[in-house]
């Protein structure tokens, strides 16, 4: 046994608790992470920690991934990181390279570049002390083999990687297994090849199914992300779809509403008021009924998230391409706070400022020294006619919500 009663005089020491730790995570305990002392002394925190780990072990069978979560949560408890929902994580765009040209995406139209290593290291230093997890995005992050180095050099951080799945073959999946702290979140935008391939290109569904087969064969956990549009909302939000994904092996889900950014943005994909209401309603149902694990992200008013784009710009929304600060300007935590203050003080209807009135939000932030970070066209982000379509549909959503309620 790596830790014994003889090594501590704390009266609140629980030998059964440490016996369980020693049995499940002997290698991690050999490193004596700082979180152990706090857990040994605080029975309330110990109970929370054990409850969290039991939930994770019920979902995950792979021993190295279990150990990855264990290391991450010891860091979280040691540093007393209590942020939840979207405020507990950061999104890191490490590359703009992509091997697909999706109908509802804009990455293919941007410069093909990668985030410099020095930026990544600075951001992860901030994460270690202040945030629970990291979501890696692109482009297509599996094209950037630095993801394995990043994961191995930061074993006490869990990374969730948004991917189209096309690069996940046996060798790639074996590397995922060896890291233990890098979990793929597969983009799935339909219930069949016909619908999914409409958004992501011919053959995408077949590659996706092959990726799932490989991940399942190695008992590796994975999740799915669906982009909700007016064309697929009823499919991907249905109970049947969630049940099917869980049966295929998914352990977590995430849904994002389509925002029409880029040169090929289409008004017909913008969720109608009814589709937007269905999305918000179903997200709450999925969480409440435990259909599959999904992070609670709903807020009365959006307070932004922390998104670092490939150039190091700090954004409060992945799809709103304006920023006030870049991490090169100094203390990243202070720059984040400054950005969040501006974002949270915007005036708009409902929860989402981008859907509510993107033009008004843009004008407000430009007056506070925010600047565009992309140049798809002369509108920089969302064309005014598309912004109006979003605002009209969102207004309809708010009327439906007022009449029916969210549940």
Could you explain how this protein is built, in words?
By secondary structure, the protein is α/β, with parallel strands linked by helices. It is 46% helix and 12% strand. It is built from 16 helices and eleven strands. A nine-stranded mixed β-sheet has the order 6-5-4-3-2-1-7-8-10. Strands 9-11 form a two-stranded antiparallel sheet. Residues 1-13 have low confidence and may be disordered.
Beta strands, count? 11
* SSE pattern: HHHHHEHEHEHEHHEHHEHEEEEHHEH
Sheet with the most strands?
A: 9 strands, mixed
| Content of β-strand | 5-15%
Q: Given the structure, what is the number of helices?
A: 16
Rounded mean pLDDT score: 89
Question: Roughly what percent helix?
Answer: 40-55%
Structural class: alpha/beta
List the strand order in the largest sheet.
6-5-4-3-2-1-7-8-10
Q: In a nutshell, what does this entry contain?
A:
The protein is an alpha/beta fold and 407 residues long. The chain has 16 helices and eleven strands.
